[in-house]
Amino acid sequence: MRGVLRIEPGALTPLALLNDEDGLVTVVVEASLMDAEQVNFHPLINTESIGLQPADLFNFIASCGREAVISDLGSAAGDAVVQ
């Protein structure tokens, strides 16, 4: 996390894609979060939080030149769908 995303352990966030200049990280989002009104993340430090609508999160990920993987992480099959 320190080397690729330049964040400390405990502060993992999809917003750290800004720091992944080599495109090494793939964001995986739990499918059930897609129905949430708001998802909350650390804004690169773990002493604060920011809330985004799921669509805004995916717009951010796309602005970093990435596609997130949406997966039902609780399912036995664990089938992932790329969006």
Q: What's the short version?
A:
The chain is α+β, with helices and mostly antiparallel strands. The protein has 1 helix and 5 strands.
Structure report:
The structure is a single chain. The protein has 83 residues and is of the alpha+beta class. The chain is 12% helix and 18% strand. The protein has one domain. The chain has one helix and five strands. It has a three-stranded mixed sheet, with no helix packed on it. The chain has a two-stranded antiparallel ribbon with strand order 2-3. The longest helix is centred in the last third of the chain and has 10 residues, at 54-63.
**Helical segment count:** 1
Global geometry:
globular
**Mean pLDDT over all positions:** 89
What's the helical proportion of residues?
10-25%
Q: What keywords describe this structure?
A:
1 helix, single chain, 3-stranded mixed β-sheet, 5 strands, 83 residues, 18% strand, alpha+beta, two-stranded antiparallel ribbon, globular
Fold blueprint:
Layout: E1 28-30, E2 39-41, E3 50-52, H1 54-63, E4 69-71, E5 80-82
